[in-house]
Amino acid sequence: MTDLVAGSIDAKRVAVASQWQLMWWAFRRHHLAMLGLVVVVILYVIAAVPGFFAINDPSRQNARAAFHPPQQVHWIDTAEDGSWRFSPYLHPYRLVRNPQTLAAEYQEDRTRKVGLTLFGRGYTYSVLGLFETDIHLFASSDPRQPLYLLGADRLGRCVWSRIMQGAQISLSVGLVGVILSLSIGVVLGGVSGYYGGKADFVIQRVIEFILSLPTIPIWLALAAALPQDWPAVTQYFMITLILSLTGWAQLARVVRGRFLSLRTEEFVTAARLDGASEARIIFRHMLPSFMSHIIASITLAIPAMILAETSLSFLGLGLQPPTISWGVLLREAQNIRSIATAPWLFAPGVAVVVAVMALNFLGDGLRDAADPYNK
């Protein structure tokens, strides 16, 4: 605990600090965890209102912009008299015919400029289903000239806007899936470890059976069994349920082990003799004592859920178009032409890597901070 408070926090403050204050002080000293927290907050803000961060309608197709390359943003606008000012703009592209190969190619038109407007107006979208607006973080100053910051796919749809929209599905699958698997794991693991006997025997055999199953084939089999004509919302719910039902067993085993070791501890015996109910003993005394294990399991499970959904959707057995998720977007990069001519279609994979790394950094910091007395 001395290392925790070294320098900036004196001993008197530590003596009267609550458990949450000690956790925050320990977490704040973990620089990678703080960076992960910032990135995760930004990602979930994007997931909450993806339309605000998108530039173009993510579902709008433009046949004349198929495989449009990413556009470079110029931040300083220089006037003819040599003066300059901060004014972001882009040069639009035009299709030209290569005189040697006769192939259609995109060429930057430096004679034209399209301004990048902050808090500009674009397509209309819904904010959390409460109201509609057309205000965007960035927008084109010319509504007739769409912007492609990360290029376009084979149907001329904006990759940047689709990544923003896909964050809503991919990140919420991890969050909802972990909540479901956490609930199942804590309840069954707690019952198994606290009561023991026949309940423990049955639950442990079920856990051993689930853990013995090969994860990826089971995901593929269950996802392939879903009817392809189901609505997008139903597909989303079922994929989340599948990931949750196969992800709770390991957490349940951890919870059971901790309950077995804690149920004979003196503070649990004292609470029982004091007349505390079993629910109070479990949720007020036992669960908080190994909160660090639960936090570590949660934060490691969210990236696993995101990767699982991405893998299933990439293989065509998860979410299906027109639903937009990072895994669905990566399906556009499955052929040789995409790899050779449109490498920017791998951008959703970069988003997955950033999200998983940020969540892992955050989880590592939370795991260490959840038990500040061991510092």
Sum this structure up briefly.
The chain is α+β, with helices and mostly antiparallel strands and 375 residues long.
Could you give the topology of this structure?
Elements: H1 11-16, H2 19-28, H3 31-48, H4 50-53, E1 74-78, E2 84-90, E3 93-97, E4 104-108, E5 114-127, E6 131-140, H5 159-195, H6 197-212, H7 215-224, H8 232-245, H9 249-262, H10 266-273, H11 278-286, H12 291-314, H13 326-330, H14 336-341, H15 347-369
Antiparallel strand pairs: 1-2, 2-5, 3-4, 5-6
Note down, in words, how this protein is organized.
With 375 residues, this protein is of the alpha+beta class. The protein folds into 2 domains: 11-48 and 164-374, MetI-like fold, CATH 1.10.3720.10; 68-151, no CATH class. Helix content is 54%, strand content 12%. The chain has 15 helices and 6 strands. A 4-stranded antiparallel β-sheet has the order 1-2-5-6. Strands 3-4 form a two-stranded antiparallel sheet. A hairpin with a 5-residue loop joins β1 (74-78) and β2 (84-90). The longest helix is centred in the middle third of the chain and has 37 residues, at 159-195. The chain is elongated. It starts with 10 loop residues before the first helix and ends in a 6-residue tail after the last helix. Residues 4-8 have low confidence and may be disordered.
Order of helices and strands: HHHHEEEEEEHHHHHHHHHHH
CATH homologous superfamily heading of the largest domain: MetI-like
- Which structural class should the secondary elements be placed in? alpha+beta
- The helicity comes to 40-55%
Instruction: Say how many strands there are.
Output: 6
CATH fold name of the largest domain: MetI-like fold
The backbone outline, from C-alpha atoms, is elongated
Name of the level-1 CATH class of the largest domain: Mainly Alpha
What is the residue-averaged pLDDT? 82
Unreliable residue stretches: 4-8
Major sheet attributes: 4 strands, antiparallel
